[in-house]
Specification:
82% of the residues lie in helices and 0% in strands. The protein is mainly α and 265 residues long. It is rod-shaped, with a radius of gyration of 27 Å.
Length: 265
C-alpha cells in the first residue's frame, strides 16, 4: 500500500513522482537551512551545540537508511512472491490440462477447453494495467472455476479412480494458486513503514539542512545528489510494491508459454 497522493503521482509516470519526491525533500532541506541560519543570526547556536547537532543528524540519516533498506526488502519479497506464483500457477494449469487427456468421454475435452479459457483469464489478471479491472477479472475466474468443477464432479461421480483423483488434485492446486496470486498482488509494503519512510526522510533531510544552515554553506551539488538518490530509492520501493503501476512488472511469460503449449500437444 502507498499513500493516495503518491499513487496519484505514480499514475502520471515515474519521472513525475520522482520529481515530486525530490521537490518535497528539497523544500525540507531548505526549510532546515533557513532555521539554522536564523539560529546563527540570533546567536543561539554555539560551536559545541553544532557538533552535537552533527552527531544527531548522522544518527537520523543512519536510521533513515535502515528504514529505506527495510522497505526495499519488504517490496522485493512481495515482488518475488508474485513472480514465483505466476510460474507456479502456469505449471499447475499445464498439469491440470494434461491430466484431462486421460479422462474418457466427452468431459475430458470440455474440461480442457475450459482450462484453456481459464489460462487466458489468469494471463489477463497478471497483465492488467489497473486495479479497476480486477473485480471483473476475479468474477471471470470464479465463473470458470465453477464451470470446470461442475464438469469434473460429474466425471468423479461416474468414474472414481486414480486418474480422476489426480485430475481433482491438479484442479485444486490450480484454484488455490489463483487465490494466492490475487492476495500477493493485493499485498504491498505496510502503510506504517511507508509513512515512517516518507516522514523520516523529511525530518532527516530537514535536520541536515539545519546543520548546513549553522555552518553557513548549502553544499548544493552534494545535497542535490543525495536527494536524487533518496528520491530514487523511495520511488523504487513504490514501484516494486505496486504490481500494476510503474515500470517494474511481473513477467507473464510462463502463462504465455503454457497457452502456446495448448495447441502443440
Amino acid at each position: 500500500m502507498i499513500l493516495p497522493q503518491f499513487r496519484d503521482l505514480l499514475e502520471f509516470g515515474l519521472l513525475t513522482a520522482a520529481a515530486a519526491l525530490f521537490l518535497f525533500l528539497t523544500l525540507a532541506m531548505e526549510a532546515g537551512f533557513l532555521v539554522g541560519r536564523r539560529m546563527v543570526i540570533k546567536r543561539l547556536a554555539t560551536t559545541q551545540e553544532a557538533s552535537s547537532i552533527s552527531t544527531l543528524t548522522a544518527g537520523m540519516l543512519g536510521l533513515l537508511a535502515f528504514t529505506l533498506s527495510l522497505s526495499i526488502g519488504f517490496a522485493q519479497n512481495r515482488y518475488e512472491a508474485r513472480r514465483d506464483l505466476v510460474l507456479a500457477e502456469a505449471n499447475a494449469i499445464g498439469t491440470a490440462w494434461l491430466r484431462t487427456k486421460l479422462i474418457d468421454g466427452d468431459e475430458g475435452p470440455l474440461i480442457a477447453a475450459k482450462i484453456e479459457d481459464y489460462a487466458k483469464a489468469r494471463l489477463d489478471f497478471t497483465i492488467a494495467a489497473s486495479d479497476v479491472d480486477i473485480p471483473a477479472l476475479a468474477l471471470r475466474t470464479n465463473a470458470l472455476q465453477d464451470d470446470i468443477w461442475r464438469i469434473t464432479r460429474v466425471v468423479a461421480h461416474r468414474s472414481p479412480n486414480p486418474v480422476t483423483t489426480a485430475l481433482v488434485n491438479a484442479l485444486n492446486d490450480m484454484f488455490d494458486l489463483s487465490a494466492s496470486q490475487r492476495f500477493a498482488y493485493a499485498s504491498g509494503v505496510p502503510n506504517a513503514l511507508m509513512l515512517a519512510l516518507y516522514f523520516g526522510a523529511l525530518l532527516a533531510i530537514g535536520a541536515l539542512g539545519y546543520q548546513f544552515g549553522l555552518a553557513g554553506k548549502r553544499q548544493v551539488v552534494l545535497s542535490s545528489l543525495l536527494l536524487l538518490m533518496w528520491s530514487g530509492g523511495m520511488l523504487l520501493i513504490v514501484d516494486l510494491s505496486q504490481p500494476r503501476m510503474g515500470d517494474i512488472r511481473v513477467d507473464s511469460e510462463p502463462l504465455v508459454w503454457t497457452i502456446q503449449g495448448f495447441g502443440q500437444k
